[in-house]
Amino acid sequence: MVVSIVIVSYNTCRILDECIASIKRETAVSYEVIVVDNASHDGSCGMLKQKYPEVTLIENNDNAGFARANNQGFAAARGKYFFMLNSDTVILDGAIDKLADFMEKDSDAGICAPRNVGRSGEVQYSCDHFPGLWNTLCVYSNLVNRFPKVKMFRRSRMQYWDYCAVRDVERVSGCSLMIRSELFRRLGGLDSNYFMYFEETDLCYRVIREGWRVVYLPDPAIIHYGGESSVSQTGRRVINRTIYSYYLCSQYYFYRKNYGYFSMAAIRGLDAAYGMALLARNAFRKDRPKREHGLAKGRALCASALGFQRG
Q: Which contiguous run of DSSP H or E holds residue 82?
């Protein structure tokens, strides 16, 4: 068995069907698909049993979270390489074969990841530096957009780079990530203290600390539909405070675990200050959708940073 593909699903029946169909269509190496369902109620499990009986299905009675569910799947996996894949993806042009072939040829790579594109083919910023106060400050102060050609201001998601070359990076998106199975097991898998968000960042951090490389490959590609459910009918992004609080709480846990309590306190303070600035800036804004978006984000930042809301 060359590749074990683990997909965590939560109410994604239609796109999960499309994802698995693309795996079958585009993958030639020996593989297995393991789906861990986090108590979906949209018929996902029934669809899998009917259309893909060869898929190993693990049905959870409740939502175990992304990290814990992935660990469940990989505990049952037999492949030489583990491929963590979101259900809202479509495999293009033998991407899994290309990733596995790269891992076979490059013995120093612990993790590799493909190019992610959106529905219309636009490249998504799927690589990043590890989290840091400077990166966050550049985003909050809008230096990212004010000085688009200055690399030191555009470190967030590596926006200074065109994503067209093979490159060692610090972290890659967990929507499509391949790792050596023995390395994954030696590291103890994903840290299940992350319910969702930052679990792949933490994994990449540990992989690099162990002396392995994390490599981005531009040739293997997948479509990633992620984030489209968070767009309102007006086309603007909306803030789900529960989901955003998961993101922030995971961020604070990453800082505390890997950087220490002082750094965690500093990022909380920065988030709280920016949240209060958003509340003040948007309190009397005339554009209602922008006002509601800004106020929702400000409230979520303040609540999580000050410890009033948990994921």
A: strand 81-86
